[in-house]
Amino acid sequence: MAAVLATNIVKQFDDVLAVNGITLAVPDGEFMVLLGPSGCGKTTFLRIICGLERQTAGDLIIGGSVVNDIPPRARGVAMMFQSYGLYPHYTVRNNIAFPLRTQRASRAEIDTKVKWAAQLLGLSHLLDRRPRQLSGGERQRVALARALVREPTALLLDEPLSNLDAKLRASARQEIKQFQQRVGVTTIYVTHDQVEAMGMGDRIAVIERGKVRQVGTPAEIYNEPADRFVATFVGSPPMNLLARNDAYLGFRPENFLPREMVDDGNGGVTEFSFRIDRCEYLGSERIAYGVIEGFESPQLTTAKLPPAHVAEESIRPGQWHRFAVRNSALRYFDHDGKRVIRS
Ligand SMILES: Nc1ncnc2c1ncn2[C@@H]1O[C@H](COP(=O)(O)OP(=O)(O)O)[C@@H](O)[C@H]1O
Ligand SMILES: [Mg+2]
Question: Which of 106, 255, 329, 333 is most buried, taking the most CB atoms under 10 A from its CB?
Answer without folding.
Answer: 333
